[in-house]
Structure formats: C-alpha cells, structure tokens
Amino acid sequence: MLTQLHVLLSYKCIFECDHCFVFSGPNAEGTFTLSQMRQVFDEAEKIGTVDTFYFEGGEAFLFYPLLLESVRMARARGFKVGIVTNAYFATSDENAELWLRPLAELGIADFSVSDDAFHFGEEVQNTAKRARAVAGRLGMPAASICIEAPRVEAGAAHEKGAAIIGGDVVFRGRAVETLAEGLPRTAPERFAECPFEDLQNPERVHLDPYGHVHLCQGVSMGNMWVAPLSALVRDYDPAAHPISGPLLRGGPAALAREYGVPLEAGYVDACHLCYETRRALLDRFPQYLAPRQVYGLA
Ligand code: SF4
Description:
The protein is of the alpha/beta class. It has helices spanning 34-47, 64-76, 93-106, 117-120, 127-137, 174-178, 229-235, 244-258, 270-280, and strands at 4-10, 52-57, 80-85, 110-114, 142-145, 151-152, 165-166, 204-207, 212-216, 219-223. It has a single domain, classed as TIM Barrel (Alpha-Beta Barrel), CATH 3.20.20. An eight-stranded mixed β-sheet has the order 5-4-3-2-1-8-9-10, with helices on one face. Strands 6-7 form a two-stranded antiparallel ribbon. Strand 8 and strand 9 form a beta hairpin. 43% of the residues are buried.
C-alpha cells in the first residue's frame, strides 16, 4: 500500500557527491513549480492511502520559498512531513534558526540531515551538525544520514563466491562511475533479487519535476504529467511493467537475461548490475527508464 510520496523538489544541489543516486549537482536542471505541487497534493488525496510527504532532492532548501509553501500545503491537507537536507544554510545557529523555525512551527515529523565525509570531508563542526542541533532545540525530530565509503571487509564470514563490501554506499547513479573501480566483484547470476525496493507493493515512490514516478531512482512507473498520479498508482501492474516484471521474476540477473544484455564477469552489488543493465536498455524503454540525467546523460 502506497503511504509515502518523496518529492525530489529539485535536482539541483550545491554538492556533487560521489554516491548520489540521481546525479544531482550545481548544474542539474529540473525543479517543481508551485502549481505542480498543488496538482501532486490533489492526486495524493485521490490515492487515499498516502499519509506522508518527504521533501528532498537535490537540495530542497535551495528553493526555500517553494519548500516552505509546499510544506504548508501538505500540513494544511493533513499529511505528515519529512525533510532531507545537507543543511548548507546553517552557517550559524542564528541563521539555522531563521530557516528552520517557520518549518518547525508547521510541524515536521522527521528532519534528516546528510552528515558524512561525502558531504563535508573530515570537517568536525559542519553545518549539518549545527542544523541538527538547532532543529532539536526547535522540537523537530532530527536524525543524521551518514553514508560510509565502500571498503573491502577482510576476514568477514560470507557465502562462498560473494564479495563482501562494507560501508553503506549502494552502487546506483554516480557511485557506479566514481566508487566501483577496484572493488571485488561477484558473478551476475548471484544477483537474483532486488534487495531494497518492494516493486510488488511499493510503500513509497519518488516524484520528480519532469513527472516521473520513480519505483527506484531511474525506474519510472509512468509520467504523472501525462496520466494522473492516482491513475498511474491504481493501474500499476508489477508483472507487466517491463522493468519491475523481470526484477520481480529474478532480480537484476533476470532483467539482463530477459533482454539479452551482455554481461561482465562480475558486479559490485545487485544495484550495480541493475543500473548497468538499465543503462543499456535506456533507448528501448525511454518511458520507463527516465530521466536520462539520472543515468549521468544529458
Ligand atoms: S536492484 Fe535495481 S531496482 Fe532494486 S534497489 Fe537496486 S537499483 Fe533499485
């Protein structure tokens, strides 16, 4: 049952992190308009099961008036709200409070701040820590998202034939191009299921400004500017979807096999194989594998 809509308010971000799933960065295009957000809220009410909105990106605070008004609209319609940010704006306690107080007054259920070496290097007192502390003082439940860089786990007990990679990076998006090199690989046939997304009964989807309804980043249920979001959700048939179907039948290995995509000897993880396979299929399924910028293409 779909309960959460995650809005990629903009693909733009001040950072260009190595592990970013959606290739965000200062030059990335695509930002929601206020009227598009209104349309999303109308459709969310029609779906009937959605109770929570997350605002993320990119960096949602780059478009602060739009973020604030969107949160206001969400709360006025009774939705719970979460926000994900890198907190670049928290340059002092006073500034952090200036940006966060209006949001806190609307009632935020979850304020998640990216605070890791990908965003801030080894800087100890960074804006993320400051924003988290200020959010806590304002009564916003605040958490940090800390992604550790991949590393080879020496001596870890593991299933024979499977490489063990520590850290929290998942190899989709920019991580494939920046972090996969030199890591041990596992044979593709071992990746026989999708480890993270419930493609059969998604509880959440990500919405982007181009209208794509992402089941996983770059795997689109359809385009909500072409068909209403509520109709896309109602009519979603996982087995018949050209990407979800094979993934449900046998994971990324089946996706590659069913479409005859040539394989390498090994991949870092299931998402690495999935992402590379989907990239090879982009021109075949432009409606379902979109937008191209999430695959690092113009
Ligand atoms: S296997 Fe594919 S669909 Fe599943 S989480 Fe990884 S990238 Fe997403």
